[in-house]
Amino acid sequence: MINGNIDEFVEKLLDGEEVIYVYHGKKYFSQGYNLDDGTYYFELQQWEPTATVLWSVKGLDRPASLDAFLKEPLFDGKTFWECEKEIEWVDE
């Protein structure tokens, strides 16, 4: 992880906190939160070059949601762990 500690970054993801990061020139945003019905929702958005929700999961608890995110090949066909050394933490 560039500009941050990977353990702190993953802890923020587990807590559902908003994090902003860049991988290969693309800016991403992740967060998790409880919906009105109490269901937990976690999402990955791409902010640049175009804004879109790339991936989301609903109904799992926080640890299971994070685990699903970390294992999904969302970053140019790679999982988070496969590319984390190239990810730059850029919270604004």
Helix content: 25-40%
Strand content: 25-35%
Structural class: alpha+beta
Number of strands: 5
Order of strands, main sheet, comes to 4-3-2-1-5
Rough shape? globular
Span between termini: 17 Å
Unreliable segments (pLDDT under 50, ≥5 consecutive)? Answer: none
State the major sheet: 5 strands, antiparallel
Secondary-structure element sequence? HEEEEHHE
Report mean pLDDT, rounded to a whole number: 96
Task: Provide keyphrases for this structure.
5-stranded antiparallel β-sheet, 92 residues, 35% strand, alpha+beta, globular
What does this structure look like?
This protein has a five-stranded antiparallel sheet with strand order 4-3-2-1-5, covered by helices on one side. The protein has 92 residues and is of the alpha+beta class. The protein starts with 5 loop residues before the first helix and ends with a strand. The protein has helices at 6-15, 62-71, 80-83, and strands at residues 19-23, 26-34, 40-48, 52-58, 88-89.
Nutshell version of this structure?
The protein has 92 residues and is α+β, with helices and mostly antiparallel strands.
Spell out the blueprint of helices and strands.
Layout (H helix, E strand, L loop, with lengths): L5 H10 L3 E5 L2 E9 L5 E9 L3 E7 L3 H10 L8 H4 L4 E2 L3
Antiparallel strand pairs: 1-2, 1-5, 2-3, 3-4
Helix pairs in contact: 1-2
